[in-house]
Amino acid sequence: MIGATVILYKPDMDITQQLLDSVLEQVDVLSIVDNSPVPTELNIKSDNLHFHHFPNNIGIAAAHNIGLNDLKTAGCEFGILLDQDSCIEEDFAFRLSSLLVASKVDKRPLVAIGPRIICSFSDKTVRPRVQRELAIYDDLVCVTQIISSGMMIDLSKLDLIGFKDESLFIDGVDHEWCWRAKKNNLMVAIAEKVEMIHRLGDSRSKFAGVTYKVGSPVRLYYQFRNVLVLSRRGYVPWYWKCRNLAVLPIRFFANSLLQDNRIDRVKFMLCGLIDGLFNRKGAFSDNW
What we know:
Distance between the termini: 43 Å
Shape: globular
Protein name: Rhamnosyltransferase
Number of strands: 11
CATH topology of the largest domain: Spore Coat Polysaccharide Biosynthesis Protein SpsA, Chain A
Helix content: 25-40%
Strand content: 15-25%
CATH class of the largest domain: Alpha Beta
CATH architecture of the largest domain: Alpha-Beta Complex
Number of domains: 2
CATH superfamily of the largest domain: Spore Coat Polysaccharide Biosynthesis Protein SpsA, Chain A
Order of helices and strands: EHEEHEHEEEEHHEEEHHHH
Structural class: alpha/beta
Largest sheet: 9 strands, mixed
Mean pLDDT: 90
């Protein structure tokens, strides 16, 4: 069986309803975890639906873990993680599961496969500038990490790796899990011929000719803090540590001077740097 878990937070239901309708046609079990302050009104008819509402927002990692646990308990072999604003094709689940099944038959150490991401802002395929390809198997490209939305996980291997790290709350959660999988001699891959439209960040801005993602001020707290928290861990790739630590001053400058809500942004970045230095984790509200 194939299951899916969709995470909601104040969703645009015109987009999210299309996603949910498509997912229901492709999977056997659906788990929805709603982190919105008020429960999202859903138009869903399914006997295999699990719905959880957390008005205090438990974070993406904890939400993923609840959904994955639902799918494992229901007896699913594979589980897909999806964000509310992703857009998948009608054979998305079948194509990813077929690749995972073929990999298991060939005894490849793959634990998860994700699609090629098409950014909804630029309509262009997202290709990492630094991350190198580790291996190529037919239509699969093994990489260091993939994003959580669109990721299909072989649930039988979840106990070996563990669930998502809830202490990170949101940013870096997907990458950390992939690095932990590699630590356990398991790999993640991108399916070259499977694509998914996905929204990365809230908007885009440009500084010194470089286009970068712009998120809400509070996201800066987790982004700055988790760079410092993850950089302490031995299994986190050196290229990621060096790149993200090097750009922190640039990101601080850009968010301090070039964006709206500058005072809020500076406050959240400083709080993130302080908590990162002291290795504090959890939600912002737990620490401030």
